[in-house]
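sorry for the late reply, my laptop died twice this morning and i had to redo everyting from scratch. anyway the thing you sent over, i finally got around to it. pasting the sequence first so we're on the same page, its 307 residues, then the predicted structure underneath. double check i copied it right bc i was rushing
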Amino acid sequence: MSSSRSSESNVNTMATNPTPFIHPQHQLISIKLTDSNYLLWRQQTYSAIVGYGLESFIAADSTPPPRFLSSGSTDAPSLNPEFATWVRQDQLLMSWLLSSLSENLLIMMVGKTNSQEVWNSLESNFSGLSKARLMHHKLQLQTLKKGSNTMREFLGKVKACCDALGVAGEPVSEQNQILYILAGLGTEYNPAVVAVTSRVEPYSLNEVYAMLLSLESRLDISTQTLVNPDGSIPSANLAQNNSSTNQKAPSPFSTNNNTRGGFSNHRGRGRSTNYRGRGGRGYRNSNARPSCQLCGLNNHTADSFYE
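ok and here's the structure:
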């Protein structure tokens, strides 16, 4: 008789002092679950569930309390208040989980009847997908190149990959991030690569950022000084390049001076230019006009060709 009264007392206490409920309107997490943030969502959600002491509802061995109380007599069994409380809390937890999902993921939960089914369904659907994304980010980080991107764009892509790996549970250290950055640079950034890799005390990530952005600015300035605003090459550079190229080509007014004792007369504009071969040596008339190395004409030189 005393045991029956004790059981009734516990039931009354349970009914008057139910376990704390977690309601779907409680804003316990700051994000909704999408196709790309499962690990971040799970960390926040599971912490909230444990904080409320409700992890038993989603555990693999979760079982509800008996629906009815057995009185041991022939009387009809009475409803167990603990079961009613458990169902209420489970349905509120399920509703809260569903409210944290994005709209496209809610379709997957149609037909689920309790919070454990919702949780297990999300676990099974995203576990394999998360591993695939993890491998994708690792491969992308290893093959990322600056190419035609600006330095800020390139550094942003490296950071995005590293952040994604960190969320997936495999954070990338600062020094490894620096190595990935240096590996993706072109040869024009070799001075920065040498400076970073040859220093005994390692650079911080922010120091490498500042160095590369500064070097990019210097390279841009150097490129702008070599090109006119209209995109053409400055005449001084062009004349110098053409002069060095044409030095190997014979002038249209050149003379073969290998004739022994011969005399050659080339007539220019109103005045002749004389070459006399003597013993394989020749001499040029001091009155000859200067010849341009670029066009071959007299009266000017390559220095004044573009003037």
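DSSP finds ten helices and four strands in the chain.
thats about all i looked at so far, will dig more tmrw
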